[in-house]
Amino acid sequence: MSEFFALSRRRRATPCGFTLVELLVVITIIGILVGLLLPAVQSARESARSNTCKNNVRSLGQAAIAYETQYKFFPSGGWGYNWTGDADLGIGGNQPGGWGYGILPFLDAKNVYEQGMGLSNKADLIGQRNALPNATFICPSRRAIQAFAAPSPAPTLIGATPQPFYGRTDYAANAGDGTKNQDLAGPADATTGQTWNAQNKWNKPNTNADPTAYTGICYVHSQITVAHIIDGPSNTYLFGEKYMNPDHYVDGADKGDARPLYVGFDTSNHRVANVAMPPLQDTQGIDNILIFGSAHGATFNMVFCDGSVHAISYSVDPETHRRLGNRADRLQVDPTKF
Q1: 258: phi > 0 → left, psi -120 to 50 → alpha, else beta; which?
Q2: How far apart are CA 76 and CA 224, in angstroms?
Q3: pLDDT tens, 6-35?
Q4: What's the pTM?
Q5: Largest pairwise CA distance in the chain
Q6: In the chain, pLDDT over 90 holds for what percent of residues?
Q7: Distance (Å, whole) CA 109 – CA 114
Q8: From residue 334, how far is each of 112, 159, 321 by CA, in Å?
């Protein structure tokens, strides 16, 4: 019996926990594992965000192609930055809103497109619509799906009640391969806007703007048909990701992001593919309201006029990039260069 009690005392005296050294070793190992896994997790998350962005671009392209199938021309760029979408004013050159507004019915958002249509309080309802974000127009690698504060001074939008917040777009239409700034307010009233279109079709200049300066698919008063795309839909940009300064993702201070999603022709929703202005990954401290680009590393997403989506390298051959922006320069495009 005495031997049993002695053995019990020895067992109780034996330590049963971890030593400090053992705990430090375990913590160190966990830290190493976390350090190894975190980049992989971040990479997986960015891959998922990039895929969502690619799907957004594809959806926009498919909507524009469905629009073209129904109306026989691609969605117009609208009248200018003082205008927003108005379902009572028709389609094509008669529609003051931009391409983002025009394709809404083909994105299962016909109710949004028709908001305020024929009603006496239309300005209020259009204003409320402009304040709403649309997930299809937002790249998750860049920012959250939300409305962002209006810049100061707030945009003037004819026929729409001003809002403190606006939905925006991370995607832009291809306006061509030129250098012309899409800084156009548009006509003073709807009657002037529609008369302008009736007298000056898509390929004729006038005193307010010269549509012949744009060689892309979408711009002021545009009504581009497939027949106008001489170089072929598979060799011509339609929509893509626009460049932004990361310092201004949410404050509207980037002049290429200052206008609401459904605004007419503006740098907020149109970009160019000029040989002297290559695409760029979003870079702090660098402003550029004319070029394509994105928050992704290595590539940015573009949808072509045939609906195909391509990840274009930031180091794309400049001349190839320019040719892809011009619908009718009759120059061949080497697909290995983009």
Answers
A1: alpha
A2: 8
A3: 545 555 555 566 687 777 777 888 878 777
A4: 0.86
A5: 116
A6: 70
A7: 9
A8: 40, 46, 10
